[in-house]
# Entry
Amino acid sequence: MRNKTRVLIVEDNADLAENIFEFLGENEYELEYASGALTALHLLDSQSFDVIVLDIMLSGASGLDIARRLRKDMNDQTPIIFMTAMGAIENKEDGYSSGGDDYLVKPFDLRELALRIDALHRRRSRIDTVLRAGDVSFNPGTLEVHVEPRGKLRLSGLAAHIFEALIRSHPDFISYASLSARLWPEQGVDANTLRTHIWLLRKQLQEAYGMPMIKTLHGRGYILDVSGQ
# Structure
């Protein structure tokens, strides 16, 4: 059985959202819903998705703002389909420049939405490269850590970004400054906040695999330890 496509629907029109859910169903897709920007950002920070279907006109912040934050602040490249009644070329330009991958003008055929979701998911799946370090691998597309023969752990939010940075740097270490700049490119962050996120990731890895996998090089940074000790 193939894995279902995880899709986040962000739409403040409850009737349209319900129609989308009914059409896509549960056989091919695993669906989550957010009616506003704050709920959407919380879900994106705490979970991972294969495709995001994002309305532009939302309460709290626009879909364009969410896309920019996802791309720049969260360093998340999950494919985004904008859906909106604004169909002018200038609107589409704004959508694509904000990080959108596709743009669907309302009203639209729900079958077309499904086709575009599937196309973006296939494209993303083809370009995802599994990163490896010894018996440890990480898939940036699914956000899954796999340790042979101990199984898989799916990360989310900043934990996934930290692990990806560490495994990309392996066998070298990554400095405090480089990791902070990658996670918070615009403002950086204090050392205590970074240590807290590292501690939380170590705890997840320890619980899943019986080893924390991240070593601190005092005064320098962090390194991924795949020795299994």
